Structure formats: C-alpha cells, structure tokens
Amino acid sequence: MQIYNVVKFKVKAGEEAAFLDAHRGGKAKWPGLERGVIIKTGEQTFCLIGTWSSQEAMVAARPAMIETLNSFRALLEDQGGGRGVTDAVSGGVVLDL
User: Fold this and answer.
1) Residue 30 lies in a domain
2) Range(s) of the domain holding residue 66
C-alpha cells in the first residue's frame, strides 16, 4: 500500500527562500521517501507531500525528518491550537484517482 504524508507550514515573512533552501540539495532525502514535493498554498503557507513505500519506512524516517525540521524551525510560525510549527498527517491510499 502506498503511504503519503502531508505537512503544513507557515513561514515567517521574508523567509520563504530560506525555507525552500532547507529542503534542497538532498537535505530532505530521507530513507524510504520515494518522492517529495512542496506546494505553495497561500501567503507564507506551504505543504510538503511525501510518498512512501510503507508506513514502516515513514516511521523509521521520522528522526531524520525531525532533524531536517530542526535545521529551519526558526523560520516557521506557530500554527496555534497546540499544533506547534507543523501540522502533519499521514495515511494509506484508499482511492487512486
């Protein structure tokens, strides 16, 4: 089963380029990640969408993902509601359109 994760970010004003640079050049090449993209969803807001071969692969990569996050955490705004600087979800495909 194909697994996806989606992480929403709100980047501080003027820090968009630094945020994107924090993911370039293999910095977000986490073990088990098949493909990752970042989309701009609004003013200062982005989503990272990752495709994984399995839930286990994604779980195993979490320490590396957190290490990457820690390298640019200061560029992000708190999202409120107790979420912190990221709003992440993941799950398996139930319908392939």
Assistant:
1) yes
2) 3-92
